[in-house]
Structures are given as structure tokens and as C-alpha cells.
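re: ur question from the group chat, yeah i did fold both. here u go
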Amino acid sequence: MYLRKVFCYSVICLLCVALVTASLARDTNTKRQTQTNNSDSSPRDEKLWKKALEIHRKAIVVDTHNDILSMMTDDNYDLSVSSVGKYHTDIARMQQGGLTAEFFSVYIDRSFVRDGGSARRTLDMIDYVYRAVERHPNDLMMAYSTADIRRAKKQNKIAALMGIEGGHAIEDSLMALRDFYRLGIRYMTLTHNNTNNWADSCCDEAKHSGLSDFGKEVVREMNRIGMLVDISHVSDKTLSDVLDVSIAPVIASHSSARALADRTRNIPDDLLRRIAKNGGVVMVNFYPGFIDRNAAAASKERDARLLSQVEELRVTYKDDSKRLGEELNKLLAANPLPATQLSVLIDHFDHIAKVAGIDHVGIGSDFDGVPSLPVGMEDISKLPNITYELLKRGYNEKDVRKVLGDNFMRAFAQAESVAQSSSKRLSGDGSVRRISLEKE
């Protein structure tokens, strides 16, 4: 059974969301959200909508974070099968959404740190991406570079890329890091919600005051081989340390603006400005709990109100995780959160563009890794609504295309250039430092 990614904004949310099955969450979300193409109740400007679709179809559209791979791996889900009302993603809706490139999130839950097998889980998930591409060669193609993404666009295919979520996946091995690069991993989120042996998380105890010495070596090695450093989920101090060390642009694969929603995994304005100086890009996360003050407050209130019931369910079904997930989902479905309008999501794009600059914002949806989405962004087919809403706010075509994918492509190309100038031998010139030898 797929265990949902653990969120950090409250203790009880950590307990609940981690056990909620993705399929039932999709059903709940579909029932309580109204399908719409607008961020409010105003009628759509058909002329502007036509322009938006024309721009969207021509643009390179990159989403840097999608968790459908967990369902593919755990449930043997085939992307060619319609999952409307169940998941956010399938091939038909990826095409409908005008997607050029998708980063499949190789999400490694913190439980693998406790129980072992992080690297094995990573390998299993990588294989499932190759499996999907080999099964559907007319729709998907493996991609490892900016050139591959552009080739996919020309061939009218969706470029499949991979990013590891949770630096514990490498099991403190720079050799494993390089091997994962060979297999196609092109970014790594340094932490998830758990602090690991070399980097502090946004949502866990700080143990290293940011990056440890070995953590800094991880960043340098990622720069050297051309793997993007992803700073979503890290602590502010870790992010600051990364920006001190990295000579290549960094990305936040799925983060938003803390000034608009005070979540520790969102990025404050001072660090947005530093990311801009680094040449990096912040990809906006779509989850209402991370972008909407009202939704976050309602979630916190609900968590407190349902605490005793959740604890009772955990005791009753302690030996049946599947049943526990089902019962927790029923409880949450009976206590829904207020809907978040699409305009709230667009506010985050707008804010980051104003603070960091239009060259430093992009799309990092978190589709199929979150239990709900804004009205008008219910699944991956709705991506053209971002183009429409940005045009409504006065952004020109060039700037819209930057947000849709050009910003990421520029940062990725710069990271490739740094790697090409750094070394010609992936392993031969690589660091063999081991974490066990350092004294923190």
C-alpha cells in the first residue's frame, strides 16, 4: 500500500496524511471541488483563453514534481489507464495539459531510514519509470538533458525525467549518488521532512546547523556531475549553506512563498532573493495546505478537533495499516476543508516573480502527492489555466513561457555547463569521502 508523503505543518497531520491511501483521497477531493477553468466565478474571456492555449501549446512546459510514481510502483499502476477521479495523472491528461517534461518523484519515505532499504526502494522506483516509457514509446521518452527535453517537444512526446525526494536515498554514499545519476536521476531533494545524517530538514530536529561537512561535499559532487540540488523541504540554514557552496543554479522542485503562507517548507523573501542571485528557480507547489492561509488554519483546527478520534483509530487498527488508512480517510472526508481558489495559487507565482524576478519561478505541482488541490487545478490536465491566469494578470507571452518551463531549462542548462567544465570522468574524478570518517 502506498504511504502518502508525510507533511510537517502539524503533528496530527503527520499521522493522518501518511496513512491515507491516494486513491480514496482523489475520490474525496473530486467530490468536494467544483470543476472550473477560472480562479473565481467571473466568466472566462474566450479571446484570452484562445491566446492562452496557443501560447501553452508552443511552450516547453515542465513540471518538476509529480508523485504518481509511488502509485506506479506500489500498485503497478499503468499510466495509459485513465485514473480520472482516482489520481491526478495519466498519459491522456498529461497530453491534455500540454506537458512537455515531467519529473517523476522518486519519493523515499523516512520509514526506509528506520527499517533499511532506501537505495533498494530508489532502484525499484527508477525501474518503474523505464517500464512506463518502454511500454508507451509513442507517448513517452526517457530524458536526461535539456537537449532531450527539446527533442521530446519536437517529437510530440512527453519527456520522462526523475528526481529523488529524500537525500537519505543515497545511504550516505557518494558512489550511490553517482550511480543514481547514471540511471537517470537529475535532481535530488537534500532532505524530506526528516533530518538525515548530513542535512537538516525544515520539519525535524536540527542536528547539523544546516549542512554538515559531508553535506557540503554532497552539494559539490552534485554540481560536479550535473545533478540539480533541490532545496525543497530543507531548513532555512541548510538552504543558506547550499547557496554558500553551490556553483550551479539550485531548484526548489515544489515550494511556495512563506510571505503568503507561513509554512516552514515555504521559502522566505530573503532566501528567494539569494536563490535569484544563484540563478536558481523556485517551482510553486499547488497544495492548499502550503499556499492558503485559510486552508492551513482550518487544517490545524481540524487536526486538534479530531485528535482523540485519530488516536482511537490508530489503536483499533494498529495491525492493519490498510484498514487504518481507509478509516482515517473516512474521518477526513466527513470533515472537509474549505476550497482554495486558483487565484491563491497564482498569487504565489506572482509574489515569487516580484521578489526573486520573473526568471526564477516555475511549476512544481506535487500532483498525486497531496490530498487536495485548488479549484481549477484538480489534475494535470488543468495546467493551461496557469497560462490563462498569468495572462489575465498582465504577464506577456515571453514571461509566461519562462514560468511554464524556460526558467527551468535555463537553470538546468547552466548546471549541465558547470558539470561539463568541472570534470570528464563521472567516477574517476569523484569524491570518495565517507560520512563515517568525519567528526562533526
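okk and heres the other one u asked abt
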Amino acid sequence: MSLNLNLKIIFQRFCLILICLVVLIFQADIPNLKALPMNTYQGEIVIEELRLKVPADAKVAWLNAEREIWEPWLSSQDGFLGRQLFWNKEKEEALILVNWENKELWKSIPMSEVNIVQEKFEDHVKTALNIRENPFELIYEGELDKQR
């Protein structure tokens, strides 16, 4: 009788462990197993986010300068996928979203080149508005990662 009782307890424990293992296996988060390792993260699309103060009376000059100065230069850069320009009338604020093939290509552009283009942009705006200072204050600069 004692042997039967021991076998019954062993069998119950075995079944409990087996059930727990099956539950754990099926609860595994399979998408995480297919996730990209961190060293290949550079291959993911990244979006540059810029927010500028753009007064209503300077909006047309801003759009023209974006189209004539930044757009041709950006289009010639490796990894540039396009961009979107938004303007909030109430806040008089612009949102610029620039899509890049990956962060590595975006960040490989020398800041000296970016500064030259920014200077041309500001000169274009100052001439168009007949002013001495750039009217567009940079409020925020950051990046967004595309979510799946």
C-alpha cells in the first residue's frame, strides 16, 4: 500500500511539473525571440523631430526657405527618405519630421555641413523678411523610433 501511495504522489508531482512546463513553453513571448539584437538596431528607420517657433507673419518665408534650401540638400543625403512639415496656427509652432533610413546614416552627416545649410536657410529668410535676426527659435530637437 505504501508503495502505491508513493507512486501516486510521484506521478502527481510529475504531472504537475509537466503541466507547468507546458504552460511556460506556450506563454513564451515568441516575437521577442525574433527581435533584433541591439547591434543591428542601426538598420531601423528613425525620424528626426524638430519643433520651431514660426510666427504667422513669417510662415510663407519659412515654407519657401524649407523648400529652396533644406529640401534639395536633404534629398542629396544618403539615407534621407523624406519629410513632413506641419504648422500649428494657435501656437505658431512648426513640427518637422525627417525620415531617415537608419540612425547611422543620419548621424554620419558632418555638423559642419548642417551648419552651412542652416546659415543659408537663415540668410534666405532674413532677406525675404528684410530682418537682421533669424525669427525661428528652435524649441525642441529629438528622434522618434518607428514602432511595430
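fwiw on the second one: Strands lie at 46-53, 80-88, 93-100, 137-145. The chain has two domains: 2-31, 44-145. idk if thats what u expected
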